[in-house]
């Protein structure tokens, strides 16, 4: 959590931090600024020093609400003048700006750099900064970065955001179920009173309208995929397809609140009735889901539930990512992932080599066993998101019935 | 435009391209894949060769719809196995993966790298890739990159997306005006039939519901700011504030379509009546807006309309970013910016040193003069988005009345 920044800097022997980039899609910047909309922002920090935001003058009201120490960039380091000084060379002007800021803010020694930007631009920018400032060491971290670690454990404010995200997500899942059940079955298809088939596209339009009503956003398209498409985990569903009875529907729902926090839940539905093979796959997913949920505890290695799930599915005769890496059938992914400002973050419930994380208070993550048989026309997945609160107790953030079969009038 | 990629690679002496990262917020990747949702994607291209997408197995249906050449990453370069090989070192595994792909795809020589990721992660990743492959030259570009240039001119398909974004945005602006006018004025405040004041927050909730209905998204918060707040260009407005008569309201509206293309329009409204100083500032903005619009032509330097606008406002006695860099009063920004998959992209209608761009067919950009006096409690801005089509003709993408005063029943 944010309170760990100084400790993490010390552990990594970092004397300073620098976070670059526009706020859009920049999760580290959003983490520090509460999601404020900022263009070409810069946050810097010395170890034991305050978080300081350099912001554009036009964004001074937005910047003031972040609660960070502020420097008006345009008033202090005017970019028009820097570009004049460097004959219009934007790279040289930016390097000069960054170096001036580091000197003015007392950043010296080993400086960790973070924030989202173009990969090639970051490469030349940081290389050039390192070249003009050989007394500094510009440090990049790949994946297990200081911020990935800080963000991996949520503080109480963040847990509240995640609880609220779960509450609203489940509310909309319920509204969506009711909306579908407000239709009738006819000739194996769900249709409205006028006899028009209800399509996946219409269900998604309904979901979007409810998201807007409740103040949530769809960061990327909701998965509502049916039959064969449900057998390809990230297939989001064919909008033109009518809802059919007796097909597995994977409804994987991951909206984001205005404060930027995600929820993640999946239910598998079969409208009217379910076929035997979908029932069997679903029951297996539910059984291992329940076993995993009952086993979760602070101190347990995060890879363990994945190994337990692979053991279970392999014993039932399914290929898994462990027994057949790269398989497209059976259990084809890892068991879960952390959730926060990113839909996929630390911790990872994966058996991958190098995953030595153990569950801790503040971990918020999904648990999502699934079985996929696209050639046989189905896929199933069950997913809830859970949290270990500060007391180390497991909290369910997704509270929604697991029912596979959803009754439809006339079916 | 995309058809220029080979020419631009030749001009920059690049033998290959590599685009990295998740698709969320990754505009270059979205540009090449039509906005497909992909995690840890990689697009590579040799000069004169095809665009090739390496995608996760779970995303194979999504990948197939991009129309690019495809390689199933999990089947060909399994990350579980790469991590085993590198004892769980994610950086080493990723460098190994990239180098294998480059060899398999025949990428040699000077390789430009693009795509959005963590700045520090990009720095170490590309430095390490360069270290193990000294026969290659890893090239990063800062700002005026090959993709910034390609994206700067829109092809006919993109122009159609931008036209549609403009049509829908103006439709919702009209619905918003009607919604406000469906209220009554009382004691200087706009209120509903029950006598409750209409707040900026309620207007924004209405806007969001209409965005959802029309299939648009709010990438960042709509600006609907009133009085003093309208005098700070990027203040998005106080949600708790009731709409008041006779205050300048800056309504800067920049939604994004499902295909990822933005529109950008601003109107300044004053409900019921306008004060003399708002009228005067608005009339000046409208005059220079009209002059600029009449002057726009292919071949004209993009900095010229900004110089014209500074000349005009300075002659009227206002400080400008040219006469007083860093000013918070008067004309405090540049005249406009390109619009496409980013809300701010090339070309820039700025007088900044180094801006030598001239208008070309395919340029789509905003024109937005404004005057800001927060201490005097107002700001005004007028903005339309326009395009030079392939014939070099100026097309208006924003078609909405400019009226400053919006009548309110009872006012």
Automatic annotation (TrEMBL), chains A, B:
Keyword tags: Aminopeptidase, Hydrolase, Metal-binding, Protease
MF annotations from Gene Ontology: aminopeptidase activity; metal ion binding
UniProt cross-references to SUPFAM superfamilies, sorted A to Z: Creatinase/aminopeptidase, Creatinase/prolidase N-terminal domain
Regions annotated as coiled coil: none
Residues covered by the Peptidase M24 domain: 161-387
Family affiliation: Belongs to the peptidase M24B family.
Protein name: Aminopeptidase P family protein
Species this protein is from: Litorilinea aerophila
């Amino acid at each position: 959590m944010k309170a760990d920044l100084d400790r993490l800097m010390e552990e990594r022997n970092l004397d300073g931090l620098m976070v670059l980039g526009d706020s859009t899609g920049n999760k580290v910047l959003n983490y520090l600024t509460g999601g404020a909309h900022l263009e070409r922002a810069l946050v810097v920090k010395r170890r034991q020093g305050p978080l300081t935001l350099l912001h554009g003058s036009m964004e001074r009201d937005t910047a003031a609400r972040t609660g960070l120490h502020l420097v008006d960039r345009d008033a202090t380091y005017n970019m028009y003048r820097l570009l004049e000084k460097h004959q219009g060379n934007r790279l040289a002007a930016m390097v000069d700006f960054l170096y001036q800021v580091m000197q003015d803010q007392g950043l010296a020694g080993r400086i960790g750099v973070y924030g989202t930007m173009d990969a090639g631009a970051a490469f030349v920018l940081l290389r050039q900064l390192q070249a003009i400032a050989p007394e500094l060491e510009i440090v990049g971290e790949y994946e297990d970065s200081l911020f990935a670690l800080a963000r991996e454990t949520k503080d109480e404010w963040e847990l509240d955001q995640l609880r609220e995200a779960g509450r609203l997500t489940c509310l909309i899942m319920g509204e969506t179920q009711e909306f579908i059940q407000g239709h009738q079955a006819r000739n194996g298809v769900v249709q409205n009173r006028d006899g028009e088939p209800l399509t996946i596209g219409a269900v998604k339009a309904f979901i979007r309208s409810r998201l807007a009503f409740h103040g949530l956003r769809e960061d990327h398209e909701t998965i509502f995929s049916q039959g064969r498409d449900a057998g390809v985990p990230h297939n989001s569903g064919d909008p033109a397809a009518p809802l059919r009875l007796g097909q597995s529907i994977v409804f994987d729902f991951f909206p984001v609140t205005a404060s930027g926090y995600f929820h993640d839940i999946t239910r598998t539905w079969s409208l009217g009735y379910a076929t035997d093979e979908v029932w069997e796959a679903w029951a297996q997913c539910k059984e291992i889901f329940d076993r995993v949920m009952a086993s979760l505890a602070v101190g347990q290695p995060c890879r363990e539930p994945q190994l337990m799930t692979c053991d279970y599915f392999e014993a039932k005769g399914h290929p898994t990512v462990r027994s057949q890496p790269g398989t497209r059938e059976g259990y084809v992914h890892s068991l879960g992932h952390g959730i926060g400002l990113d839909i996929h973050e630390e911790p990872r419930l994966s058996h991958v080599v190098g995953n030595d994380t153990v569950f801790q208070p503040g971990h918020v993550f999904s648990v999502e066993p699934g079985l996929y048989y696209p050639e046989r026309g189905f896929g199933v997945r069950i997913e809830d998101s859970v949290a270990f609160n500060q007391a180390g107790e497991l909290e369910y953030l997704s509270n929604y019935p697991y029912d596979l079969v959803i009754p439809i009038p006339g079916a």
